[in-house]
Amino acid sequence: MTSSSSPLAFDHLVVMLRDELEARSAAFEAAGYRLGPPGYHNLGSMNRLIALNSTYIELLGWPQGSEPLRKEIADQPLGLDALVFRSHDAHADQARLHHAGFDVQPVSHLERPVEIGGSSRIARFNTVRFNSQPIDGLRVYFCQHLTPELVWNEDLTEHANGARFIHSIELSAADAASTAAMLAKLVNGQVAEESGRYDVRLENTLISITTSPDNAGARINRARLLHADGNLHDFDYTLGAGR
User: Fold this and answer.
1) What's the CATH code, domain 163-234?
2) Residue partners of 241: CB distance under 8 A and separation at least 6
3) Which of 95, 185, 211, 228 has a Cα at 20 to 30 A from 108?
């Protein structure tokens, strides 16, 4: 278990596909990703996962032709949408964040049915979300996996294109230093500055922030995946766009 003084691990990157999720899934599969089966949350959203070695990419949306039921995602634009950090104890993290002055919600419970080995199971999560986001322009929250074996298993983590894990995520913000400081506070991390770039190293992923004076808020610019060939590849979240 991660101690209270150690940086948290990164859990997953959310890619918002809105009502295009179903139409665009085939393009991600054609690019060599093994997508988990469609999942339907009790809160009304729909997803498909790209499970990696210690993290995953969540393709998030809702069924085509229906209205989004989750208020927090209804107006989110297409693209790289949210950073989610791993919690070992959602109630403890909620208390920590509340004590630190963040406008945090009570712990909420999320679940969805999954098919594993021909049988139906329920994947369950506790999440910690914010009433107002601590970093302007960036959606962040915390996720505790109560059934991790239903997310990470050999059937889902082997990808034909060799994708293994999220090596790094690059953000930009008008004030990169303060954005990095706030991020570090959220995840029990430290900031390292080098040539105008601010790095926050988590247990399993590096998050870097650079200055972009024209940004209205923080923005996720790209994620880089380490593949089995030892090379880094940009994750293309635009696959299937325009279909």
Assistant:
1) 3.10.180.10
2) 20, 24, 78
3) 185
Full pLDDT tens readout for the chain, 243 residues: 334 568 899 999 999 999 999 999 999 999 999 999 888 887 778 999 999 999 999 999 998 888 777 777 888 899 999 999 999 999 999 999 999 999 999 999 988 888 777 788 899 999 999 999 999 999 999 999 999 998 998 788 999 999 999 999 999 999 999 999 999 999 999 999 999 899 999 999 999 999 999 999 999 999 999 999 999 999 999 999 975
Place of tokens 């040539």: 195
Burial profile 49-81: b = 16 or more Cβ within 10 angstroms, e = fewer? bbbbebbbbbbbbbeeeeebeeeebeebeeebb
Decide if 197 contacts 208 (C-beta within 8 A). yes
Q: The pTM is what?
A: 0.93
Scanning the structure block, which residue is given the tokens 């039921």?
69
